[in-house]
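Need tokens for this chain, all 73 residues.
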Amino acid sequence: MKPKKVQIMRALEVGNAWLFEAEKAVDIVQKYGKGGVCPSQPVIDKITFTDGLPEGSTKLLAWLKDWETKHPM
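Here are the structure tokens for all 73 residues:
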């Protein structure tokens, strides 16, 4: 049985907005990441970057949203 969103939110102790943003990030990565519908090297490079300190999910999501806005399918 597939877990429901409310169960995921409770397990992670996050709210609806956080889960929505996480789903948005996954959607963008599935479209433009390696193996995606429309792979894009800048997106692939951004999500696979491992040098230096991680920038955090908020900045990554902002970058992904901005990139998608500037490069609509």
